[in-house]
Design goal:
alpha+beta; 24% helix
Length: 147
């Protein structure tokens, strides 16, 4: 189809419309921006690329559904669950083996870390006087604290 305004080529959107209200054809020239006045049916300067909507009786019918594949059935087939169970058991066994090895390795590393010699500590407090944990500090006079 040719553009009714610039007479250039138009994009055919009839088979890939995203919405029934989308145009059937749009002008390939992006500078061609005209729209059809609904009352007069004349083209007037517009803000969008020129588009054409076919009358509903001329609009192409939707594409038919694809033909079924030979030998395929619309009814779901029964699945042999014993095969599924066997596969799941195999997967479980592999995962168990892998994760067991990982857990053993990490447990060994942790045990080695815990049995390592502790780092020597130094007493940085020059006053070896034990602290009385029952002292709540209520006998301190705020005015006696130098600022």
């Amino acid at each position: 189809m040719d553009c009714p305004v610039c007479k250039g080529l138009m994009w055919d959107n009839t088979n890939n419309k995203k919405s029934p209200t989308s145009p059937d054809y749009t002008c390939k020239n992006k500078e061609c921006k005209w729209s059809q006045d609904r009352k007069t049916k004349e083209y007037v300067q517009g803000q969008y690329t020129t588009a054409v909507w076919l009358p509903k009786e001329q609009a192409p019918a939707p594409a038919p559904a694809p033909a079924p594949v030979a030998g395929a059935s619309a009814v779901p087939q029964k699945v042999d669950m014993s095969e599924v169970v066997t596969i799941l058991r195999d997967i479980n066994s592999v995962l168990h083996t892998v994760f067991s090895k990982e857990l053993i390795q990490r447990s060994t590393e942790l045990a080695e870390h815990e049995t390592a010699e502790p780092m020597p500590t130094t007493d940085t407090d020059p006053d070896p006087t034990p602290v009385d944990s029952s002292d709540d500090g209520s006998d301190i006079n705020v005015e006696d604290i130098p600022y």
